[in-house]
């Protein structure tokens, strides 16, 4: 194994480099703003308890989980 000299910087790249164009979409394109509408629903206690329990386990909010389930379901049939 080669011995490091004091001139080398571990944070600097070594070898031939090739610039790669930025191909990622902007944050706005990744997470577009979607208009939301407030609704009132009556949901049975067991269902709410289920989502609250799963949300606590995963560290998210139960209402967000419920919205995602509804969104995925609706997209399947649109």
Characterization of this structure:
By secondary structure, the protein is mostly helical. Helix content is 44%, strand content 0%. The chain has three helices and no strands. The chain has helices spanning 27-30, 45-58, 62-77. Helix 2 crosses helix 3 (62-77). The chain is elongated and about 70 Å long.
How many helical elements?
3
Topology pattern, helix = H, strand = E: HHH
Count the E strands: 0
Unreliable spans:
none
Supply Rg: 24 Å
Distance between the termini: 61 Å
| Beta-strand residue percentage | under 5%
Q: Level of helix content?
A: 40-55%
Shape estimate: elongated
Please describe the biggest sheet, giving its number of strands, its sense, and whether it closes into a barrel: none
Which short descriptors sum up this protein?
single chain, elongated, mainly alpha, 3 helices
Helices and strands in order, then pairings?
Blueprint: H1 27-30, H2 45-58, H3 62-77
Helix pairs in contact: 2-3
Outline of the structure:
With 78 residues, this protein is an all-alpha fold. It contains 3 helices and no strands. Helices cover 44% and strands 0% of the residues.
